[in-house]
Amino acid sequence: MDNNESKVMEEGATLTENVEKIVEKFFEDRTDTFTRPEEKAIFMVGALVNYLLYVQRDERGIKWGEEPFRSKLYGLILDEAKIKKIFGKAVGKLAEYRRSYPTLEKIAGKYLSEAGTEWKLSKDEISYYFTLGLTLGGIFRVKEKKITKKEVMENECKDSVE
Known about the structure:
Layout: H1 3-7, H2 15-28, H3 37-60, H4 80-97, H5 102-115, H6 123-136, H7 149-161
Helix pairs in contact: 3-4, 3-5, 3-6
């Protein structure tokens, strides 16, 4: 477990619930990079697509780069309308696989709703934030389970040693 994850663990919470805190901490630690809601929204859509590509590799037994959804990414030349289209398609495709990630979908949706319309970002900036999320999105991938008091204490002890 990395530092972000260990610092936000709470007894009785699920790791899925803690994903929201991990994401918030991630953005708090990078306020120079993420200054606007649309930047966070684009990044989180990229992170969601990262998860979808992982699911496709897992379900189909294919290698990185062979995922069918990759062809829906417009060669990573993106704008506001394409990001919103990709978000809807990704959520739908995950539902088809019965491998939705409701927490990540909710976080991406939250930031998309905060971003509003008529973003003031260039295509290059939009492509950058999406690709950043696509490449780093795996850091938000967790398995659902309850966190025990023992795990919280172990992580606190590990943090104090580091």
